[in-house]
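Fold this sequence, please.
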Amino acid sequence: MRILLSALLFSTFCAAVHAEIWECTDENGNRRFTNIKAEARGCRQLNVGPVNSVPAPPRPAAKAAPAAPGGFPKVDARTQ
């Protein structure tokens, strides 16, 4: 029962966790990013969407070169 209650409590807090990202530009045009609100005076808040955590699809297997027809003339490796 204690584990179930802990899991339920943890899952409710995980949904509410997010970070605010701020973009700051100084007089010289240098850009700086921060997540500390006290350092973000005069900066604009970025609207960062949810993180994509879907894995990439697997790559298809490489296809082998087609075999030459039976009567096709071949050149040996030394001549190549």
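The mean pLDDT is 79. Residues 24 and 43 are 5 Å apart (CA to CA).
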